[in-house]
Write the structure tokens for this entry.
Amino acid sequence: MKKALVAGALGVSGRALVNHLVASQSWEVVGLSRRSPEFQSPAHYIAIDLLNQSDVDACVSNLGDLTHIFYAALQPGSNFFDEIPPNLAMLQHIVEAVERTSRSFRKIVLIEGAKYYGAHFGPYKTPAREDDPRHMPPNFYYDQEDYLKARSAGKAWSWTALRPSCICGFAVGNPMNMATVIAVYASFCKELGLPLRYPGSAAAYGVIMEMTDAELLAKAMVWAALDDRCDGEAFNITNGGFSRWEHLWPRLAEFFRIPYAPPQRFPLATFMSDKETLWRAMVRKYNLLDYSFQHAAAWPFGEAVFNIEYDVMSDTTKSRQFGFHECVDTEEMLLRLLRQFQQMRFIPQWD
């Protein structure tokens, strides 16, 4: 039985990974997060502040021999410089605590993202490859990866970095999850009797984009953890194809059974700021799960993604060459997630 420590276990990637590990019945799973889960799970969840080194040390010392760390924790910052100290410190606290207490520690899988390539700045070289040169720092992914390279040198454990793009799954209170943004926005349009308009720019509507299914990413994380060929390597992990919002949007309108209308750019985060009353009314009317409006969808992130006016593309050839062949159709993924959200009563299931 392998024993996993999942940092960021209630985020969109961490939650999918915990479910995947538990379902495999070959892992003992410990999840770390800032808050306690709002659901039951066979995994052992611990609410902890990873920035508190003494708390991390005390926690890990009671967990026995951990074999793997899956690191998906994130501390957003107000600027690129402010992001580095907390995100590096959280990683260091976990790695060094596990090093001291576990003789069976073999691998840490670090989740990065397309931000590694400078996708957050503007147009960049696409398709992005793992060996592309770094952009001008700061970028906390660089600090985390460099730390793991140096720390693991000569040790019995190694590391692998995975770089997904626009992860989609289910998690509440997550700062980066387009699936819940789309689900809540479209539900509002349905409830208000409005057509489904793309809320970003016309240019962004037609560019090439990509997504990563959280369940596919979970499979990739386990593959990277167990395949020794992945030691010391980084891999782009996406659904395996490319899309354009202009092709996906009419299908989303069809799913919600509302009219489709051409794009109309507006400040999404601002226009959603007064919708808490509508959300609360829908929770009562349709007997939805009682999630707070603030945790239901990340509107600033959604607005940013809906207005990316350049191609976002990652080359996944390397992961296939190393043995990971999973792929997902992005359109089918979104429709599957929306059906799941309805079944779990996150959004309404209209007659």
